[in-house]
């Protein structure tokens, strides 16, 4: 990943996706905003108690750093599903309830999803100029949200998985994501070979490797190129928000994708 900080707003891009000049993409950090206390400083959600005016200013700053307009952002009201919605320019400024993946092939319809330990998955098909942004926590992962997104790109836009480039962003890593029986049972039910996804430190409970699990879904779907950030949000609360490490007293960073142009 490559770190950028124009005008104080820090965000990362992926080498694999930087290769496409027609594509705007970023994973934001917690730096460059106006929020205070546990939300310091570039918190992009109003759902954890932050001042709504501060969040709006943060959204304007993050959008501006990417050459986008805050009022154009399209987002879902995330609910840990594998539900996919196709969006376009007519949906600019809208929030759609009940989805954790948005897809588009239209320039001028920037997509924003939010995270605080769950896994951002960004997918681009340069052949059809179609993209997807996925929010995949453990529930989304066991529902194969990343694979469902690949299938949706194929169904909606005629994309071929072999043409797609995917990036798995910062999230809680297998080093820190200790889970209980509810999660291990769900992982074992979802995956044919689950043991490698559930490392167990000596004398400890199982951990869940969200990076490997989402990579497996993408590879199974036939995606040709996959980049994994391997950056743990719980280990790097200086850079990202972490619901687990900060005991829920935190904000959310974002993943953004858009095709250049206003259509």
Low-confidence runs (pLDDT<50, min 5 residues)? none
- Kindly state the percentage of residues in helix: 10-25%
Look up the CATH topology. Answer: CNF1/YfiH-like putative cysteine hydrolases
Order of helices and strands: EEHEHEEEEEEEHHEHHEE
Q: CATH superfamily name?
A: CNF1/YfiH-like putative cysteine hydrolases
Calculate the terminal CA-CA distance, rounded to whole Å: 29 Å
Strand order, biggest sheet? 5-7-10-9-11-12
* The CATH class: Alpha Beta
Number of domains: 1
Largest sheet: 6 strands, mixed
Mean pLDDT figure:
97
Description:
This protein is α+β, with helices and mostly antiparallel strands and 263 residues long. The chain has helices spanning 15-18, 52-65, 138-142, 145-157, 181-190, 210-221, and strands at 2-4, 11-13, 23-28, 75-77, 84-86, 95-97, 101-104, 111-115, 119-125, 130-136, 165-168, 225-228, 253-259. The mean pLDDT is 97. The chain has 6 helices and 13 strands. A hairpin with a 4-residue loop joins strand 9 and strand 10 (130-136). The longest helix is centred in the first third of the chain and has 14 residues, at 52-65.
How is the topology of this model organized?
Layout: E1 2-4, E2 11-13, H1 15-18, E3 23-28, H2 52-65, E4 75-77, E5 84-86, E6 95-97, E7 101-104, E8 111-115, E9 119-125, E10 130-136, H3 138-142, H4 145-157, E11 165-168, H5 181-190, H6 210-221, E12 225-228, E13 253-259
Parallel strand pairs: 4-6, 5-7, 11-12
Antiparallel strand pairs: 1-2, 2-3, 3-13, 7-10, 8-13, 9-10, 9-11
Helix pairs in contact: 4-6
């Amino acid at each position: 990943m490559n770190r950028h900080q124009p005008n104080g707003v820090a965000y990362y891009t992926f080498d694999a996706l930087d290769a496409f000049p027609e594509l705007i993409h970023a994973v934001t950090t917690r730096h460059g905003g106006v929020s205070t206390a546990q939300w310091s400083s570039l918190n992009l959600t109003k759902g954890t108690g932050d001042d709504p005016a501060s969040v709006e200013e943060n959204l304007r700053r993050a959008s501006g750093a990417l050459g986008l307009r805050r009022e154009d952002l399209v987002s879902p009201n995330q609910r840990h599903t594998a539900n996919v919605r196709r969006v376009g320019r007519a949906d600019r400024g809208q929030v759609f309830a009940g989805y954790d993946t948005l897809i588009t092939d239209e320039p001028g319809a920037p997509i924003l999803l939010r995270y605080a330990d769950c896994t951002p998955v960004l997918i681009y098909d340069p052949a059809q100029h179609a993209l997807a942004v996925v929010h995949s926590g453990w529930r989304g992962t066991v529902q194969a949200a990343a694979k469902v997104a690949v299938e949706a790109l194929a169904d909606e836009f005629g994309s071929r998985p072999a043409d797609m480039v995917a990036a798995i962003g910062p999230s809680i890593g297998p080093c820190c994501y200790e889970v209980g029986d509810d999660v291990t049972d769900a992982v074992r039910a979802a995956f044919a070979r689950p043991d490698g996804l559930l490392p167990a430190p000596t004398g400890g409970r199982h951990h869940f490797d969200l990076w490997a699990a989402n990579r497996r879904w993408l590879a199974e779907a036939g995606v040709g190129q996959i980049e994994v950030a391997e950056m743990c949000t719980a280990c790097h609360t200086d850079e990202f928000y972490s619901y687990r490490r900060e005991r829920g007293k935190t904000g959310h960073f974002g993943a953004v994708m858009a095709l250049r142009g206003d259509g």
